[in-house]
Design goal:
The chain contains eleven helices and two strands, in the order ααααββααααααα. The chain has one domain. By secondary structure, the chain is mostly helical. Strands 1-2 form a two-stranded antiparallel ribbon. Helix 1 packs antiparallel against helix 8 and helix 1 crosses helix 9.
């Protein structure tokens, strides 16, 4: 359950990577930093605007959190779509290396914006969700604040699946992903569809960042590490594949939980990143299309 909780947060970030890659074949390395900036922005609303604390009335906490989720999602969507418009749109026909360097540059720009505004200190919020135990199993306690992550993530993933597979905009996204030129001939506004995809990815980052803030704490460089882990999850599941991104994130979350939670035959928390990136290297070497991805001429 702990691994599933952590994996759910990773899934929200990994889906952002896989959505953008699926439509542009671009790894948006700034995505993790959008996640961190959205979480810091959410902390401002929780602590300063809504002034929520653990002693606030239940309705105030529920209403404030709900509003913060929406605001953080909108903020992430605006930042991500702005990055696409300013940095990536003019590079669609540029060499892949130019786009890659631009993505890395945007990552540092967003990270330094977060640093300039929110300084180097971690931001955290009071325990707004009850730390009471949902259940205890062999001395391991699973609490309501962790279960809250699953309660929020599950409907978001269901809504995303419905949007991509069943709505007109989702069909436009899939058509643009398959063949942008043919989609344009059929009357699809490719620029608007790509901007919507970036906005959707940013919205997922905003929701994930708020969840992470409620569960842990966040600062300007949190998104860099989490972004790399989520990118590994997306590659593990098959980047460009939504189900694969969720599967990869859950597997990474389980691996992390087992490594950090088991007291026997486990390297421990200090080795978690090494294990995750070893998995990334192994996947790129032996199965570059990922667990659920399809082999393409580029191997993605």
């Amino acid at each position: 359950m702990i691994g599933l909780t952590t994996g759910s947060v990773y899934a929200l970030i990994a889906l952002g990577y896989t959505l953008v890659y699926g439509i542009l074949q671009l790894i948006n390395f700034a995505h993790g930093d959008v996640f961190a900036l959205s979480g810091l922005f959410a902390s401002t609303f929780i602590l300063s605007v809504f002034n929520i604390s653990d002693t606030s009335p239940v309705l105030a906490i529920v209403g404030g959190l709900a509003a913060t989720f929406v605001i953080a999602a909108l903020f992430g969507a605006i930042v991500n779509s702005t990055i696409e418009f300013v940095a990536y749109r003019r590079l669609r026909r540029a060499p892949r290396l130019a786009v890659l360097i631009t993505a890395v540059g945007m990552s540092f720009i967003v990270q330094n914006i977060a640093l300039a505004i929110y300084d180097v200190n971690y931001r955290s919020v009071p325990p707004l969700i009850s730390p009471a135990r949902v259940f205890t199993f062999h001395g391991v306690h699973y609490e309501w604040d962790s279960f809250f992550v699953l309660l929020v993530t599950a409907p978001v993933l269901v809504l995303l699946t419905w949007l991509v597979k069943s709505t007109r905009q989702g069909k436009a996204m899939r058509a643009t992903s398959q063949d942008p030129e043919a989609a344009a001939i059929m009357g699809i506004n490719v620029n608007r569809t790509i901007s919507f995809t970036f906005a959707l990815a940013g919205g997922l980052a905003g929701v994930g960042a708020t969840l992470y803030l409620v569960e842990f704490n966040i600062r300007y460089d949190t998104g860099f590490t989490l972004g790399l882990i989520a990118f590994t999850a997306a590659v593990l599941g098959g980047i460009g594949n939504l189900s694969g991104a969720v599967l990869g994130a859950i597997l990474i979350g389980l691996i992390q939980a087992f490594n950090e939670g088991l007291s026997w035959q486990a390297p421990g928390a200090d080795w978690t990143r090494s294990i995750v990136f070893a998995i990334l290297i192994a996947i790129l070497v032996f199965r570059p299309e990922g667990l659920l991805g399809e082999r393409t001429p580029e191997g993605a």
